[in-house]
Amino acid sequence: MAAELPASPCVRECCLDGRTDTCVGCFRTLDEITGWHAADAAEREQILARCAERRVAYQTIHQALRR
Q: Mind telling me which Pfam families this protein's record contains (predicted)?
């Protein structure tokens, strides 16, 4: 039985940051978005881990800017 692939983190709020080519909805880079369907389970897990790191960094920066 094949392992189930991780689901896409897409939240249908696509908006690319022009400086980083990162979606501020799901926090994937443009390359990660376009390569998602070809990625195997391990690659998808790596992408999801990077997304989580980017989300935390984004939230930290934007919270600091609001102060």
A: DUF1289 (PF06945)
Q: Where are the domains of the chain?
A: 16-66
Pairwise CA distance, residues 15 & 40, whole Å = 25
Q: What would the two tokens of residue 11 be?
A: 């939240």
Three-class DSSP category at 37:
helix
Q: What is the model's pTM?
A: 0.86
C-alpha–C-alpha distance, residues 5 and 13, integer Å: 22
Tokens of 54: 């980017």
The values of phi and psi at residue 16, to 5°, are: -80, 135
